[in-house]
Amino acid sequence: MEMKELREMDEAELTEKERQLTQEVFNLRFQLATGRIENQMRIRQTRRDLARVKTVMRQKTIAAGKATSQGKGHV
Length: 75
Hints:
The chain is mainly α. Helices cover 83% and strands 0% of the residues.
């Protein structure tokens, strides 16, 4: 998953993607614990994708806050 794709998503899509990736990490860790995982690198990749989603969500939150505070005018 690329950052460009994530930046084009809206807040609802990002929240849903975060939920999906969190569930996938849980499932992969469960498979690892039971010894049924085929590719252990999927855990690492999924965790990185989750971090990317959270980063984009945070960037959008900060950008929205800056846009709001610029409109108010500081004294």
